[in-house]
Amino acid sequence: MGYLVELGWFILLVAVVNIEAQKQPLNIQSRCLGNVLRVDISRLGGFILEVSAVKNHSAVLLTPTLASQCGFRMQIDQLGNAKIYASIQNCFAQNVGDQAFTTTLNLHLRGNGMFEDELYQVAETCHYSAWASREILCERDYMQVSVQRAAPGDPRRDAKKQPIDSGFRITAIVFFTPEERLMKTREAISRGYGVANTPTRLVLRSPKTSPETFTQDVAGIPMTVLRTSTQFQKNWMETHVEAQAACPILQGSVSFTPRSISWFLPRHLGALISSGPVQLLEVHMGVDGERLDGAKMAARQYSLSVNDVHIILEIPVGAVGGHFKSHVQGGQYFTTYSIEPMLELLWTEGTSHQDTKYKVLLPFTSPLIPHTPQVIDNSVPGERVFKVAVGPFSSDVALMNITVPSGVLSLADLAAKGLNLLEHPSPNSSSKVFTLDVPFRDQLVLQMKGTAVTVYNLQLTFGLLVLPEFAPFSHSVNLQAQVTDIVNPSVSGGCDHQNFQVLVTYGSHGFDTVVGGQLLTAELAQQFGFINNGTHGAFTVPLSSPNAVVEAVESSSIRSRLHVALRNPQTNKNIKEFSMACNFLSSMIECFPNGTMTALATKVESVPSLNMSQLTLRDPACGPAYSNGRYAYFVFTVNSCGTTRNFRHNMMMYENEISLPDELSGKRDSKTEEVEYDLKVFCYYDINTNSAMAFHPRARRSEPNAEDSRELQAEIRLAAGLKRAVSDGDSVLPVSSGPILIKKS
User: Fold this and answer.
1) pLDDT per residue over 373-419, tens digit each?
2) Does 579 reside within a domain?
3) Residue 250 bridge partners (DSSP)
4) What CATH number is given to the structural domain containing 206?
């Protein structure tokens, strides 16, 4: 390993920016993937990673040059996850009989001033015995060929039967560029080549940019080719081992579309074939050095096909296994999609049936893809809240602030205002979406009132940053919502002589009209004479309607009330309620000259359970002449049914009352809040009013001239206790003695 000292010690530094500056537990895992070892390191955070290879208790710090010479490669994604790839035949591996390979790495995490340095050591032994005669490994920075050494004679045909013993040493390497160029082993190592003579194999490793490599077109695909012949000597014996490798060049083998990436690899790698026909035995694909089976490929929508010329791998842009990286150019947001697929081939050639394992790990990144963030307006005007989602953005994008017409609001300002700003990462953390809720009442929202509507407008500019480059960009959002102003309907009204007049003013939303507890249906509206002019509705409810309730009854009037409610049909809750009570003039009692009285009893609100047919006068035998659920009509004479007579000044008053008989009144529930029904009825007659009529026994001198054509039949008759009486039809009125004057007025 003395040649390593001659190269010097260098440090491979990889800086990872983490603006959160929060220490997270470091997770280190190592896996053997055939002839490749992979070490995964998750979440470096703000640390700088130094990788050292350890052998014989000595650590050598790796540089990019040393890494490609010795079979190492490292990459870090934007999330701070690192992957270290190492050939199991790397310069520092402890090789036990070409069967077990132990690689030990020191991972030195240097703090950035916020955390202390940390040191981890990873040691992994990979067991690999299924060697092919030739194994070729194509990495991003280097190409490696491992061939089984053959004894002097036929180096290919007898390779497996007669391996070169350990006494042979490498003295020189002949490079074919395609011209021959002889280079001593020491010189080759100084030029960056890796050369190893293991117990049974020759390992040759070359950076892809070495001048001894050349480009060759194979089936239209440009390939970087390395062809060598290595000289082995032992005393007077000398032998040569040929080693060739060809790796695809990214430009020319990969094509991009906005939706997919296609990788073309020649089926017949002519530069690697030395004799006879070739039989392709196996083709496999994988990602990040790990082989995938058919089910996983289908789940990720990968497509692998083989035709007569090419092996074709198609990968959708954004598929699982890759990741997006954000970029800003000219203030516009772009993304690139990166993935590291792998192709593995196994073929045999010639009559010797020597096999070749061919593995290519080819990381590639798509061209810049214009990415216009989507604005999803989830606002519901009825909730009076703007709800907006902006994205998706790659995981390396951070939201810094939001600009509004009045200024710039930091994330802390938004939180202080109580605005709900959230970040929603995708399940695999490859992208994110930002959501923001802003109530209509917030000062950030502009309002413009129109006719019966209010327009709300929210103007936002999201200030974003791409990490770790700290490249700023922005995305503007203009939201608008129109809300119909809520105008509740109203109801008003008045009374005329015998009716309730109701006027309903329509609002901005529908409603049902309930009159006296009954829904105003089309049939009922027709009964009430409903009139609609588009903005108002009017109808008339008669006093006698069952929709009105009687509050009180007097001798000459009824106090009645009508209740109108406007109800929300969805919630069945009243939007507006209106009641009006009016006194209506009404002849509840009639007094006739012949001593007959009539009385109309009306059901009142305070006694809702009253059965009108059960009402009587003072004499329980005197019930109503007619009754229904609302009225009871009584007809009786002043000298019957318990009617009493009183004299007051110049009047004579006959009085009775309408109520439930005692036996029914006593059965009323004592717990009820209903009052007793008691309606007094009375009639007044003047007792000092004289009506005189003059007459003379002589013959009439002229015909009387009546004011109307009706005839008045009058006769004089003696009454008991009286001297005279005047009879008008069936009515007999006592008169005083003396002249009688009959005058019709």
Assistant:
1) 999 999 888 889 999 999 999 988 999 999 999 899 999 999 998 88
2) no
3) none
4) 2.60.40
Class of residue 741 by CB neighbours under 10 A (exposed 0-12, middle 13-18, buried 19+)? exposed
Side-chain half-sphere exposure of 324, counting CA atoms within 13 A: 26
* Residue linked to tokens 């030990």: 104
Is residue 345 very low, low, confident or very high in pLDDT (cuts 50, 70, 90)?
A: very high
Quick check: 75 and 83 in contact, CB under 8 A? Answer: yes
Task: For 288-419, list the strands marked E by DSSP.
Answer: 290-291, 303-306, 310-316, 323-329, 332-339, 341-349, 354-361, 364-365, 369-370, 374-377, 385-394, 397-404, 407-410
- Looking at residue 214, its pLDDT comes to 92
The residue written with tokens 């160029």 in the block is 181
Residue 557 CA to residue 505 CA, distance in Å, equals 31
pLDDT of residue 382: 82
Nearest residue to 193 (alpha-carbon basis) of 181, 217, 33, 125:
181
Judge if 12 and 122 occupy the same domain.
yes
601 domain-assigned: yes
| pLDDT exceeds 80 at position 123 | yes
Instruction: List the structure tokens of 278.
Output: 């070739």
Closest to 63 in 3D by CA, of 54, 53, 55: 53
Give domain status of residue 583, yes or no: no
| pLDDT of the residue at 714 | 53
Is residue 612 domain-shared with residue 678, that is, in the same domain?
Answer: yes
Q: Beta 531-532 vs 518-519: how paired, if at all?
A: unpaired
Using the Cα atoms of residue 429, residue 433, residue 438 and residue 443 in order, give the sign of their dihedral: positive
As for how many domains the chain has, the answer is 7
With a cut of 50, say whether residue 7 has pLDDT above it: no
Closest CA to 272 of 211, 308, 241, 227: 227
Residue 360 bridge partners (DSSP): 138, 343
Residue 615 and residue 677 share a domain: yes
**Confidence label for 692 from pLDDT (cuts 50, 70 and 90):** low
Residue 646 inside a domain? The answer is: yes
- Secondary structure element (H or E) that encloses residue 473, with its range: strand 471-484
Q: What is the pLDDT of residues 330-344, one digit of tens each?
A: 999 999 999 999 999
User: How far apart (Å, rounded) are the C-alpha atoms in residues 351 and 311?
Assistant: 24
Cβ distance 384 to 439 under 8 Å?
A: yes
3-state secondary structure of 501: strand
Residues 95-121 have a mean pLDDT of 86
Residues 264 and 339 in one domain: yes
Q: Note down the domain range covering 36.
A: 2-127
* For residues 133-161, average pLDDT: 73
Q: What are phi and psi of 3, to 5 degrees?
A: -65, -20
| 194/86 Cα distance (integer angstroms) | 14
- Provide the CATH number for the domain around residue 649: 2.60.40.3210
Q: What is the mean pLDDT of residues 320-339?
A: 92
What is the rounded distance in angstroms from the CA atom of residue 1 to the CA atom of residue 171?
16
**Is 695 found in the same domain as 676?**
no
* 209 and 264 in a common domain: no
Alpha-carbon gap, residue 394 to 327, rounded angstroms = 10
141 and 237: one domain? Answer: yes
b/e code 334-371 from CB counts within 10 Å (16+ = b): bbbbebbbbbbbbbbbeebebbbbbbbbbbbbbeebeb
Same structural domain, 350 and 376: no
| End position of a domain, from candidates 439, 467, 484 | 484
pTM beyond 0.85, yes or no = no
Spatial contact of 398 and 326, defined as CB atoms under 8 Å apart: no
Report the alpha-carbon distance of residue 163 to residue 377 in Å, rounded. Answer: 72
Task: State yes or no: pLDDT of 709 exceeds 90.
Answer: no
Q: Is 458 helix (H, G, I), strand (E, B) or coil?
A: strand
Mean pLDDT of 505-531: 88
Higher pLDDT, 629 or 681: 681
- Give the end of a domain, one of 660, 686, 712: 686
